[in-house]
């Protein structure tokens, strides 16, 4: 899986699993950008089919059994959905 990197302040490992068509995923990405946080993201729906299935299965197994988006992992803390207060707290 190739992640896209967004430059910003290093707050540890921040990875966003998102869909390109998901409004809440876009809000999460915009929030991270506005907070000047360095993070990596992947649009799962834009991957090739085999890789998409592999990444989705891994995301569900490791982080979010419900398989919903966005799934944000901040230094091991998993935040499902656009949860602005939780995101800000995890980055503090």
From TrEMBL:
Q: Which residues form the GST N-terminal domain?
A: 12-92
Q: Which residues form a coiled coil?
A: none
What is the name listed in the Swiss-Prot or TrEMBL entry for this protein?
A: Glutaredoxin family protein
The residue range of the signal peptide is: none
Q: Name one Pfam family in it.
A: Glutaredoxin
């Amino acid at each position: 899986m190739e992640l896209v990197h967004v430059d910003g302040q290093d707050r540890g490992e921040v990875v966003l699993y998102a869909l390109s068509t998901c409004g809440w995923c876009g809000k999460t990405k915009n929030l991270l950008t506005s907070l000047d946080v360095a993070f990596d993201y992947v649009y799962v729906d834009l991957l090739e089919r085999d890789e998409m299935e592999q990444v989705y299965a891994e995301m569900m197994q490791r982080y979010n059994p419900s398989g919903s988006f966005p799934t944000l992992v901040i230094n091991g803390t998993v935040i499902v959905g656009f949860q602005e207060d939780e995101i800000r707290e995890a980055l503090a």
